[in-house]
Design goal:
- This protein is α/β, with parallel strands linked by helices.
- The chain has helices at about 5-15, 50-70, 80-90, 90-105, 125-140, 160-165, 225-235, 255-265, 280-285, 315-340, 350-360, 375-405, 555-560, and strands at about 30-40, 75-80, 105-110, 150, 170-175, 195-200, 205-210, 240-245, 275, 300, 415-420, 425-435, 440-445, 450-455, 455-460, 465-475, 480-485, 500, 505-510, 515-520, 525, 535-540, 560-565, 565-575, 580-590, 590-600, 610-615.
- Helix 2 packs across helix 3.
């Protein structure tokens, strides 16, 4: 790229530290290329975690140690604390050598987190814990911390990411995935810029760079005169570019030819481009403080994908379920454990909580949680998810039992202690079972103030009465309710109906079990357009041939879906003062669908719940 003296001077005035004057102030510094060596390693994908540890982690540490020994200017970047933990466990001799290169600043820990996880599905709580777990490991093992979010390969990036990163003290983010997009989302192309600032939902800002191909290989060439780097430099007016090179997916190391080309370019001082063998965060540090660089372009919004990962958020539903259960249960277990410790009832189980989070959170990796890995991989994923669920559940039960044992539970009927793990007061309809003798026909419930609240007896089976209670519990709190059962039950046959209603809604189904009318009594308005229906439907055609298991094309969902309407049966399975439930059974091909539609009275009257079971 031939830059005039005038244009270079303009760059130096704008770019501050990245475009400083030469000694005589007559010539600006030449443009810079930050070349970032990486070996992106999918923790699971077309292989399982055993293969990752046995082959790919070993290749990564062994090959890069040889390159670091041979090339004095070589700097290697690698993300994922869990992979470093495996290095420590399985390859301790090489791990000890690696630590020396980390101390020397040549093996760079990047990404800051326990693993390079998906940036869409995990909760904010998980994203922050992921960073905390990674940073804690890095501090203890290396006396250092990561400073950036390093996600070369991911399926889109939510608007919360820069906010989370900034609040965790991180300064930058890099990826190359936006270059995969089909559409031009931005004025000049697929990504907003190749170097700039990204603003999060709360206004927090971090620096963002586009790294191009993470598996790029350099030929035996003079990189200070590289046509490709000059093309990348021409995409901005900053005089800098950030470029990955190395290998992708299976770890390992950049090719010797690539490393040799960078080594020679670093030592060459008379080329058009200054080549920097760079850590993943050096460009961010060189631009700090960002407030001193108004020339940096800014982007404020989501960075999502229109290809490749567009359907992966629907595949492997069990992973999504287990992950969300672990997120909620892990949070609830910790809150309950804190309360138990504050009351002196139990010691805080810090190690067990950390272990459980570490075990399941690495499965939020972008090819694991998203549902793009081979079936064999999910045998390990589900096992870890279920182990963490069991451990979290045990901590939660143990802690709530400890707190409940110190509460006054003297009531006339059966005392039931409700726990609310949310940070706000919650009112909900709770389903519980109470041991009984005989078959009671009536239930009444009283809150801690002795006031009767809505309750409903669902049935009695095997010496247990199933009861619904509308309960209100303070934030992070407990409440003792008094449940009283009386009378004798009368057998009731299941009823059939196509209409249910409560004080807010009237809902009508047609013969296919589809909702053809939903009338809002408060608004005095029909919510279903005439001739339309709210229905279970299926998209039967999706022409994603490269990735049919986990990519859904837009053209597929733009088509009219096919209704599920085979062998329809509709019945009323609950009809009481607190909840009424319709059950709709359907078939499509060899699949069975069961849908429950629930309407409530009382505090939840504005809500309609849909529960679907698919076999």
């Amino acid at each position: 790229m031939k830059l005039t003296k005038t244009s270079l001077l303009a760059i130096s005035l704008l770019a501050g530290t990245t475009g400083a004057y030469a000694a005589d102030n007559t010539q600006a510094e030449k443009p810079k290329a930050y070349l970032v060596a990486d070996a992106h390693l999918d923790t699971q994908w077309n292989w399982d975690v055993q293969t990752t540890i046995k082959e790919y982690v070993w290749n990564t540490i062994n090959q890069n140690l040889k390159l670091l020994e041979q090339y004095p200017n070589y700097v290697f970047n690698f993300e994922g604390a869990v992979k470093y933990a495996w290095m420590k466990e399985y390859y301790p001799r090489e791990y000890a050598l690696l630590k020396k290169y980390i101390d020397a600043g040549r093996w760079h820990i990047c990404g800051s987190s326990w693993d390079a996880t998906d940036a869409i599905v995990p909760s904010v709580e998980s994203a922050i814990r992921n960073i905390m777990l990674g940073q804690d490991f890095y501090r203890k093992e290396f006396g250092a911390e990561g400073t950036d979010i390093f996600l070369p390969d991911c399926f889109g990036f939510g608007w919360t990411l820069p906010t989370i990163a900034s609040h965790c003290g991180l300064i930058g983010f890099s990826t190359q995935k936006l270059g995969w997009r089909h559409g031009n989302f931005h004025p000049h192309g697929r990504y907003p810029y190749n170097v700039g600032l990204w603003k999060g939902v709360d206004g927090s800002e971090i620096m963002m760079t586009h790294g191009y191909g993470y598996g790029h290989r350099w030929n035996y060439e003079d990189l200070t005169e590289s046509k490709l780097l000059k093309e990348h430099l021409a995409e901005n007016d900053l005089g800098v570019v950030f470029n990955y090179y190395g290998t992708g997916d299976t770890g390992g190391a950049p090719t010797i030819t690539s490393v040799d080309a960078v080594e020679r370019a670093v030592n060459k001082k008379d080329g058009d481009i200054e080549i920097i063998s760079s850590t993943s965060d050096q460009i961010f540090k060189d631009f700090m403080p960002y407030s001193s660089h108004p020339e940096l372009p800014k982007y404020d919004g989501e960075l999502l994908m229109d290809v490749h990962g567009t359907g992966c958020y629907t595949s492997q539903a069990a992973m999504k379920l287990y992950n969300r259960q672990n997120e909620l249960l892990g949070d609830a277990a910790e809150r309950a454990a804190v309360a138990a410790e504050m009351l002196g009832a139990e010691a805080y189980p810090g190690e067990a909580l950390t272990e459980s989070w570490q075990r399941f959170i690495w499965h939020q990796f972008h090819d694991d949680l998203t549902g793009t890995s081979i079936p064999r991989a999910y045998e390990f994923s589900w096992n870890d998810e279920l182990l963490s669920l069991k451990q979290f559940a045990g901590i939660l039960s143990h802690s709530t039992d400890a707190v409940a044992s110190q509460l006054d539970t003297r009531v006339k009927g059966t005392p039931v202690v409700f726990h609310n793990a949310l940070g706000t007061e919650a009112t909900d309809v709770v389903e519980l079972e109470i041991p009984v003798k005989g078959r009671p026909g009536k239930v009444s419930a009283y809150n801690p103030q002795g006031k009767e609240v809505a309750a409903q007896l669902l049935g009695v089976n095997s010496g247990k009465a199933k009861v619904l209670v509308e309960a209100t519990v303070p934030a992070n709190g407990y409440a003792v309710y008094d449940i009283r059962l009386s009378g004798s039950a009368k057998s009731q046959a299941s009823a059939t109906a196509n209409t249910v209603e409560n004080s807010v809604y009237k809902l009508t189904l047609d013969k296919n079990g589809d909702i053809t009318s939903l009338y809002d009594k408060k608004a005095n308005k029909e919510l279903v357009e005439k001739g339309k229906a709210i229905r279970l439907a299926i998209f039967t055609e999706n022409k994603s041939y490269p990735w049919p298991a986990w990519e859904i094309l837009k053209e597929a969902i733009d088509r009219e879906p096919q209704s599920i309407n085979g062998d329809v049966k509709i019945s009323v399975v609950e009809n009481g003062p607190l909840r009424t439930t319709l059950c709709i059974d359907k078939k499509h091909g060899d699949s069975n669908f069961r849908q429950y539609i629930r309407l409530y009275e009382g505090a939840l009257a504005d809500r309609i719940d849909f529960f679907n079971e698919v076999d």
